[in-house]
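Provenance and format

Records in this collection were gathered into a single text stream. Each protein contributes a sequence line and a token line. The two records reproduced below are adjacent in the stream.
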Amino acid sequence: MSKKPEDDDFGKPLSGGASEVAIPLEEDLLIIRGKDSFLLVGKAGSRFPLCIETPDDEYCQAVDPDDLIIVSMPEGGPVGQARMMLELIRQYHIPLVVLPKGHPGSKRLSMVVSVAPEILLACDIQRGTHPEQHLICSSMELSGLLLTGISGGVMMKNLPPGVVIEHVNPENYPTDKQQ
């Protein structure tokens, strides 16, 4: 976990249950953990175009430095895997691929990603089938959480009870499997 000297509580886990909370976030990452699932949250950090490939079209959206990149792992899994996905978008600007509704591969997606200024978590959507970046598939325990990128941080609304928020240093979760 990272720690900033000006704020003694910066690196400590926070628990859910608050209706609205602002959390500092710059170059580090946040993990929002439920009992069985988690989100990895990072800031875009720079302005870049993000291409989104759908079954019928391709479109690009502008990503701003304070926009959020959120990787959702509704059944949990390795944090390093989620970090790889986040960095592929943040550093390398890979395009996002959207599956058509009803695609059988949707059931095998262990993680999904959204990039936007504000992102709402929902458990009632099919994984990987939403080109709209304001919405991301999540577990039931995190559904309803709304995250908004703000200058120097992230605003969270409808934080479910029982979740834990931790600041992490990305180096603690390497993307290289050889450790």
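Adjacent record:
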Amino acid sequence: MSFLASSCAAPPSSPPQLLIGEPAVSEALKHAQTGDPNAQNQLGIHYSEGRGLPQNYLEAKDWFKKAADQGHAGAQVNLGTLYSLGQGAPYSDHMALFWFQKAVEQRNALAFAKLGMMYERGRGVPQSLVEAHMWYSLSAAYGEKRAVESRDTIATRMTRSQITESEERAKKWTPTRP
């Protein structure tokens, strides 16, 4: 899975070096500079993946942060991912969890999966297969197909009562913010 992030630093004052044949990047840059969170997230993806721009995780983090601060759930997941990988941001499970949880509050399918992974591996939280299974189940329910495999894999290491507990928690889950 590839996920991106953003930082608080301002973008460079000189225009980015575009790669040949990438008008989508020029368009995204134009809209991102006007404060459009969708364009900011997209520009962060371009930087993170090196599509149309030289790969630059610091720039990716900056653009994801701008969008994440405006409540863009995808950018929040991308920013959390950069923190979880230590790419363009200091490695920080705490910050990764912070941004994943913000996106979960908006019912972002990928954010549920990211929290599942954090609980499965005990990264920044106590390791809990019950919690991991619950988050993967919610992710799958919200459309993240890859979460089904993760959920089913950890279920093989759980008792029937743990699975039942996880399923009950998933049914009762609601965001803390409406």
